[in-house]
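note to self — DONT lose this again. spent like an hour looking for the file last time. sequence + predicted structure for the chain T wanted, 128 res
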Amino acid sequence: MHDGSKIVPGLILFLGILFAPFWYNAGTGQAAARPDIVKPTQEKQCVESTEFMKANHMQLLIQWREEVVRNGDRTYVATDGKSYEKSLTGSCLKCHSNKAEFCDRCHDYAHVQPNCWNCHTAPKESKA
């Protein structure tokens, strides 16, 4: 091996470049800032608790879609006993009408692209 003196420094340089982003993130020690979302003012409570909705809103919407499309079941009874229409546009978007300030901020933060708007019309942004 005649090029051993070039291989070891090249390997060290390659590994340094490869792991530089990890060292940079470890050195700063800061998590990304959580999004500041605009909460609805019309209602004081969602169909379920805030904690439940933060963690499970997509599962709930998928469950609603399956039950409405396959079974024709259009009424959701929440854990507090109140009834709601199983509808993104008929229930959710009545309060969460500003997609850019509510939906998009969290979805951008979480780096997810929900497929809601493949079928539903996105709400028009209010000029506030």
